[in-house]
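ENTRY TYPE: paired fold submission
RECORD: A
CONTENT: sequence, then structure tokens
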Amino acid sequence: MKKVIMLFTALCISMSAFGATIDEILASFSGLQSYRADFRQVTEIENFGKDEYVGRIYVVNKYRALWDYSYPYRQYYLFTSDRVDYYDSEIRQLVRQKNAEGNQNAITRLMLDIGNIRQNFHVTLSGENTLNLVPLSDIGVRYIKVDTDGSRITKVMSEDPTGNRTEVTFTNIHLNIDIDKKIFEPTVPAGTEIFEYN
């Protein structure tokens, strides 16, 4: 079963302090050029229980994003503005497809064009440190909630229309660092089956 991942890359957007307004928080998005962080993802599939994953995320704003999983086995999701590649070492397959509706597409919109978040989501603030994002159209996700610690986004929670929930916690966050673009050109072993969908 294809893993549900909630790929919200506003994970390390700087904010001035607790109590910032939505406009101030969103304005800080425009200065974010790149980020890298370790993540722990827990996905709860309706009637199937929970799965846990660990890895590292790399993002260059408006260019590419890579979720590189190391546990429980090697896999990755590579996002560009119009495509997603999914590699699974367990079944030795690489799937390349145009972005479609669903969790991945919803989060890709955030990952690669964070400054324009209001084009796709209604944004509200709960308390002092949680952003609530509700899609303006049917893009395959009911909501995304984003927790901050006052300077960075530290956790993202989401739910899709079938009730599947994902929580991603970020640590070891680095903002606006140089990321070698070769990171976004991962290789797969010889013999990997490759499927192309347009």
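RECORD: B
CONTENT: sequence, then structure tokens
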Amino acid sequence: MKGEENHDDGGAARLAGEVAAALRAQGLRLAVAESCSGGWIAKVCTDPAGASDWFCAGLVTYSNDAKRDVLGVAPQTLARHGAVSEAVVKEMTAGVLARIHAADVALAVSGVAGPGGGGPGKPVGCVWIAWQRRGRGAVARRFDFAGGRDAVRRAAVAEALRGVLRHAAA
């Protein structure tokens, strides 16, 4: 899916506010595992005062070693599918929920933000995002965003937050 909107910081802040309201209304707390977004999701979620009511952790697991050591992503999964894959982001959300006991909802992002690093089947702009609510299976989706590094990361942040509203806070 191509990123079709202008994903500016104001839009991310608005989406984070919607996520906050939805999670607060249900008494749920979010934790995130980020790779290509580099902590941007955690930043927009924690910008407003009072975020600790609904946001409990943000982990930047940029390298494969961090995905393995911090989140428990299986080395076999990384070797077989690569870091930018459905299997890896699903293991990332499971790892968040296994390690962050206060979290009810997890999201994970891994992608190729560019300008280099893309390859066959995983071009620059390819981003996998997964969402999981404790006690349920993870839902993952691939996005293929257009633009440079900043545009890809910005779009990933916005879609990750939209997905919390669609998949995890519903």
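NOTES ON RECORD B: The beta strands are 30-34, 55-60, 105-111, 126-133, 139-144. Confidence is low (pLDDT under 50) at residues 1-7.
STATUS: closed
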